[in-house]
Design goal:
The complex is a heterodimer. Chain A is of the alpha/beta class. Chain A has nine helices and ten strands. Chain A has a six-stranded mixed β-sheet with strand order 6-7-8-3-9-10, with helices on both faces. In chain A, strands 2-1-4-5 form a four-stranded antiparallel β-sheet, covered by helices on one side. The N and C termini of chain A lie far apart (42 Å). Chain B is mainly alpha-helical. Classes of the chains: A alpha/beta, B mainly alpha.
Chain lengths: 261, 228
């Protein structure tokens, strides 16, 4: 069974249709790259998966459980959306780290709030917090940021901020980790360190959906590539297929801009 | 000169007593207006349009009319128009009326500062909180609030310093604050009359107190410089 099934998602802002009949599925441990020009709906699709936007139509299923169905208001209750979101993690283009917290606190904050809802929280508070701290330190170590854990975001480079943001998303152990142009706000020099971290996650079979303009990276890391144009999926397949043997004229045209020069 | 030195202790004692009332009004206004301003700010940002329009209208009226008139209305309206003098006639009644007028007035000004502060925190902060499974309350108190406080300290400092001086307006309803105390020596009090210099002396009290406030607020601003 696929870990994620998206069926017939549509979304319009006013009269502008941003997503039209989007369907795809993703297996556990796969990496899906979404490519396409700006305004093609990639980011909106990620935001729909993370419940930051509500699709007008369609169904989203994770591990067979229907998280969202536009036809079924029971799946749209605000209180439950908060829990459903936790199936997904989202790394933003502009990091959105919390500036008043250190790297380590950024990674721990949401988890520390979440465990307060556990029935055994009061009795085991110290123990639970110690576990969370150990996990955060381990995540920051994986991101190569052990010596930066007590720094505030403004004391970190863009690449370091984005790695903290990745650790923060991973701390909640999402089923599917989404990236919204994770390197677009970075200097070319800093892009590499973030891409390396994401590649490392792919090697560990983290299920990921990545919106990116880094074509070489997408070809390298993905098990599946979707090319979007004007809110529709124009082409999808294995990276070799989409990048080397695109069927659609529009895909060829889009990719040619990245291979020239 | 000899006469001045003789009168000085009497005047200072009276001014001290008056300034205590000034301080009381200042602190009571802050304690009331800081939280009330937040409620008004949320009201004016409410997605329930009738509420937001109503709150915005009240804020416009309060900010568009002189505080002195508001003081007079709050103090005299219940007795003269409603025939129900809820404030009583003593100093404590005047203080209560002045507090109500000041709290409402300053809460409206604060609410606009808060609104600006809340709206200046990037929407991405809220979205980051949401995707991490935080509740709206958690996002406000753990993420937005401190960033907002950092941004509003400079404009709030301005308003707070203005408030210190604005308390003198309560003289209009004869609250016995420091201006009233200074003026009493013009009319004649404790054997001193026709003296205008005690009134000039009150300025020193305001200046010293505002100096202390400026230092404290500056420190608070510095304290929040640890993040950007």
């Amino acid at each position: 069974m696929p870990i994620l099934e998206v069926e017939h998602i549509s979304k319009a802002f006013g009269r502008t249709e941003v997503l039209t009949d989007i369907s795809f599925s993703l297996e556990q441990g796969q990496v899906l790259s979404l490519i396409g020009s700006s305004g093609s709906g990639k980011t909106t699709l990620l935001r729909c998966l993370n419940f930051l936007e509500q699709p007008d139509n369609g169904v989203i299923r994770v591990n067979g459980e229907t998280l969202f169905d536009a036809q079924d208001p029971a799946t749209q209750k605000v209180a439950e959306i908060r829990k459903k979101r936790l199936h997904f993690g989202l790394v933003f283009q502009s990091f959105n780290l919390f500036p008043q917290y250190t790297a380590r606190e950024n990674v721990m904050l949401a988890k520390k709030l979440l465990v307060q809802e556990q029935p055994d929280f009061k009795a085991r508070k110290k123990e639970i917090f110690r576990e969370i701290e150990a996990e955060a330190d381990e995540l920051l170590r994986q991101m190569g940021l052990s010596d930066r854990r007590d720094n505030y975001p403004h004391q970190l480079s863009g690449g370091q901020c984005q790695r903290v943001a990745i650790a923060r998303a991973l701390a909640l152990k999402p089923d599917i980790l989404c990236f919204d142009e994770p390197t677009s706000a970075l200097d070319p020099e800093l892009t590499g360190e973030v891409l390396k971290v994401i590649k490392g996650l792919a090697v560990q079979n983290t299920t990921m959906i990545i919106v990116t303009h880094e074509m070489a990276f997408a070809r390298d890391v993905s098990s599946q590539v979707i090319f979007m144009d004007e809110g529709q999926i124009l082409e999808q397949g294995r990276p070799d297929q989409v990048f080397n043997h695109p069927r659609e004229e529009r895909t060829k045209q889009f990719l040619s801009r990245f291979t020239e020069g | 000169m000899e006469l001045f030195l003789e009168q000085l202790p009497i005047v200072l004692r009276a001014l001290n007593t008056g300034f205590l009332q000034t301080l009381k009004l200042f602190f009571v206004t802050l304690i009331g207006a800081i939280p009330l301003g937040l409620i008004i700010a949320f009201g004016s940002m409410s997605r329930f349009k009738p509420l937001s329009y109503l709150v915005k209208m009240i804020v416009t009226i309060i900010r568009g009319t002189p505080l002195m008139i508001q003081l007079l209305i709050v103090y005299f309206f219940p007795g003269l128009v409603l025939d129900n003098p809820i404030w009583g006639s003593g100093e404590s009644g005047r203080f209560l009326a002045a507090s109500v007028a000041f709290i409402i007035n300053y809460a409206c000004y604060f609410s606009e500062i808060y609104r600006g502060g809340i709206q200046s925190v990037p929407i991405g902060q809220q979205e980051a909180g949401l995707v991490l499974g935080m509740t709206k309350n958690q996002i406000f108190f753990r993420v937005t609030l401190l960033q907002m406080i950092k941004r509003i300290i400079p404009p709030m400092s301005n308003e707070i310093i203005t408030l210190v001086k604005d308390t003198s307006l309560s003289r209009i309803i004869s609250l016995q604050e420091i201006i009233w105390a200074g003026q009493s020596f013009m009319r004649g009090s404790q054997g001193i009359s026709g003296a205008i210099w005690p009134l000039f002396f009150t300025a020193i009290y305001y200046l010293i107190f505002n100096g202390i406030l400026t230092v404290l607020l500056g420190r608070l601003e510095k304290k929040l410089n640890y993040f950007r």
